[in-house]
């Protein structure tokens, strides 16, 4: 079946997005019931000490209080893992360890027990697809979801933030721009997305947001997936997502939320986008947002 009109393209986009999320639900659904844990999603950059102390405090309230660092996103995972362990211990963590799992290791059920009873899991920065390539749909992934259900805090920075969503921005685009001309357009179907860990299902996360001028890519993604909120977290800033599906902003900069659920999206034949009625919220530390009601409070 062939559609040449913008309206037809929009219909195809909506059907494809709904189908993609349905497949995600079948293959990556978390256990039933609302999680008792929290998500601690950092936009990258420097990590203020008060922010990281808060993560340590939250981790101490669940299970053994131990923090497990997963540095697979990093180009130097062992160096990154050791550095984060030292950071958490210096901030008062009861115990901190790191595991640099390969795919083969993550698929072994006994290795998942290494994470059991942990109070916090923390993903480092780097390249988010390295995380999913290593642990997606493995016993390690299942253990992380189980810990989240039971009350642990699951955190990450930069790539470790992007991987939290069900639909994950990979950091790539389909068009091949010259170096320094990346993500200059707002267009349908250009941003490469993939399955993330699925810990947050109602939003797609972007990081280093205002600092690296990533509005174009997040707007492009939510235009094609208007059922999802776009949450852009800037550097040295984080959101804490609570079990009631609200989040609080902490840190030094902004969190920007895009809501296209009531917008009118039109897609031209050249994939350029028109979006009318897009809602944007710019939040600072201490402000809260309700992901279900799609509004700040």
Name of the top-level CATH class? Alpha Beta
Number of helices: 9
CATH topology: Rossmann fold
Strand order of the largest sheet: 3-2-4-5-1-10-11-16-17
DSSP strand content: 25-35%
Order of helices and strands: HEHEHEHHEHHEHEEEHEEEEEEEEE
Helix content: 25-40%
Shape: globular
Main beta-sheet annotation: 9 strands, mixed
Question: What features would you describe in this structure?
Answer:
By secondary structure, the chain is of the alpha/beta class. The protein has one domain (6-28, 35-175, 184-287): Rossmann fold (3-Layer(aba) Sandwich), CATH 3.40.50. 30% of the residues lie in helices and 26% in strands. It has nine helices and 17 strands. It has a nine-stranded mixed sheet. It has a four-stranded mixed sheet with strand order 8-9-12-15. It has a two-stranded antiparallel sheet with strand order 6-7. Helix 9 links the parallel strand 8 and strand 9 (229-233). The longest helix is centred in the first third of the chain and has 23 residues, at 6-28. Mean pLDDT is 90; it is low at 1-31.
Q: Which descriptors would you attach to this protein?
A:
297 residues, alpha/beta, Rossmann fold, 9-stranded mixed sheet, 4-stranded mixed sheet
What order do the helices and strands come in, and which of them pair?
Elements: H1 6-28, E1 38-42, H2 49-59, E2 67-70, H3 77-90, E3 96-98, H4 103-106, H5 109-112, E4 120-123, H6 128-135, H7 139-150, E5 153-157, H8 159-162, E6 167-173, E7 191-195, E8 203-207, H9 215-224, E9 229-233, E10 237-241, E11 246-251, E12 255-259, E13 264-267, E14 273-276, E15 279-283, E16 288-290, E17 295-296
Parallel strand pairs: 1-5, 2-3, 2-4, 4-5, 8-9
Antiparallel strand pairs: 1-10, 6-7, 9-12, 10-11, 11-16, 12-15, 13-14, 16-17
């Amino acid at each position: 079946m062939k559609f040449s009109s913008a309206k037809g393209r929009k219909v195809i986009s909506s059907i494809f997005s709904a189908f993609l999320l349905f497949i995600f639900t079948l293959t990556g659904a978390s256990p039933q019931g609302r999680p008792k844990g929290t998500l601690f999603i950092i936009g990258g950059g420097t990590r203020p000490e008060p922010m990281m102390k808060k993560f340590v405090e939250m981790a101490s309230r669940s299970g053994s209080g131990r923090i497990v660092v997963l540095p697979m996103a990093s180009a130097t995972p062992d160096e990154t893992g050791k550095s984060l362990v030292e950071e958490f211990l210096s901030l008062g963590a009861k115990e901190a360890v790191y595991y640099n799992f390969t795919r083969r290791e993550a698929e072994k059920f006994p290795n998942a027990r290494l994470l059991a009873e942990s109070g916090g899991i923390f993903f480092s920065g780097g390249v988010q697809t390295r995380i999913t390539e290593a642990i997606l749909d493995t016993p390690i992934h299942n253990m992380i979801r189980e810990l989240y259900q039971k009350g642990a805090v699951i955190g990450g920075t930069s790539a470790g933030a992007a991987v939290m969503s069900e639909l994950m921005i990979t950091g790539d685009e389909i068009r091949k721009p010259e170096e320094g001309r990346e993500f200059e357009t707002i267009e349908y179907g250009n941003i490469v997305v993939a399955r993330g860990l699925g810990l947050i299902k109602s939003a797609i996360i972007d990081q280093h947001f205002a600092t690296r001028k990533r509005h174009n890519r997040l707007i492009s993604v939510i235009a094609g997936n208007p059922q999802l909120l776009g949450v852009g977290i800037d550097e040295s800033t984080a959101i804490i997502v609570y079990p009631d599906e609200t989040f609080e902003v902490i840190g030094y900069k902004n969190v920007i939320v895009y809501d296209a659920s009531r917008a009118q999206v039109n897609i031209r034949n050249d994939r350029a986008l028109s979006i009318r009625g897009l809602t944007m919220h710019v939040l600072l530390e201490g402000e809260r947002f309700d992901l279900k009601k799609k509004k700040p409070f």
